[in-house]
Amino acid sequence: MKFTSDKPKLDHVMKLPTTPEAYHAFDIPISFKYLYTLEGDKGEVFTQRIRVREYVIWLHVITVNKRMEAKEVQTILHPTPSKAIFTLHYMLQNRVMAKLQHHGQVELREGEYNMFFVPPIQHDAYFDPGVYVCFHIDLPPHLLQRVESELPLLMYLLRMMEANNGGTINEEPYWIDSGVRRCIEEIIECKLSGQEGRSFLYTRCEDLFMHFLEDFTDITPSPEEPRYELTDKDTAAIYGVRAYILQHLHLQFTFDELADRFGIAADKLRYGFPRMFYRKMAMFLKEQRMIRSMELIKTTRLNVSIIANMVGYRDVEEFSRAFRQYYGCCPLQEKRH
After folding, report:
1. Which string of DSSP letters, residue by residue, matches 39-95?
2. Which CATH number does 2-219 carry?
3. pLDDT in tens, 258-290
4. Residue 156 phi/psi, 5° resolution?
5. Is the pTM for the entire model greater than 0.90?
6. Which run of H or of E encompasses 15?
7. Which of 123, 73, 136, 119 is CA-nearest to residue 97?
8. Could you tell me which of 155, 150, 115 has the C-alpha nearest to residue 136?
9. DSSP code of 171?
10. Fewer Cβ close by (within 10 Å): the C or N end of the chain?
11. What CATH fold (topology level) applies to the domain 232-336?
């Protein structure tokens, strides 16, 4: 995502080795950092970018200073992606009005988010004097295609957005609730570096994507999908299942076995787990096994086959494939580091 501007013009853009002191509260150590300045001390845009596997994370802090013209005018920035993207855009501070080419005006107020399809052409974003904090995650098409069988309506709307060369997934934005806000805060506050930091950020991106899917299905429910009311007992049982998984990563178990153990119907467990923890149980289990295996690799001298067994893999080759898929490298490479 690049910025240009003609009202006022951008003086220049700098790639920064470190975060300026004024933006330390937003510093993500493993990010690439850029500073755009507007001519005549009219403001600046501090941008951070991080690629974590298929996701690209962006955090923009936009400062627009009060201008001295007799008639106050808005500052217009032109965000332009290098290629067509689907993006989850979260407005953390202030509000922004944008004009998408071929689509018209859209607005995001503080505390709202939406999914956009943005083609690689110039758009207009309008800013009054003030400070704006925008956070967004770019999503590759194949990531969305993996939910096509479960959410055909979502894929239909995405294709409509592409056909219209831009747009939003929903006319009414979604609210940034406490769970979403906490995920974003954990990304911004993440001080981990290297592969450990990227793995952590990837997990948070998955959380946000799953939360979006939850919000989408809540607003546009499938008539075929059964709905369950979760009682306090059901909620306690699902928390118990999660705790049991974390304590028994070395074991193999099924939905039905866990449901029987904690006294909840398997269908309710299957329905409730992703709604409480924003990911399906199988995804949660794999993620926790990978996180635990990385901890063991970094903090012990155990060989890889023993670590594989300790996190529930009976076959070391299967474990190595899963590890490479999750971290982008094989466990032996991490062991040598």
Report:
1. GGGTEEEEEEEEEETTEEEEEEEEEEPPP-SSS---EEEEEE-SS-EEEEEEEEES-
2. 2.60.120.10
3. 999 999 999 899 888 877 775 678 878 887 898
4. -60, -45
5. no
6. strand 10-16
7. 123
8. 115
9. S
10. C
11. Arc Repressor Mutant, subunit A (1.10.10)
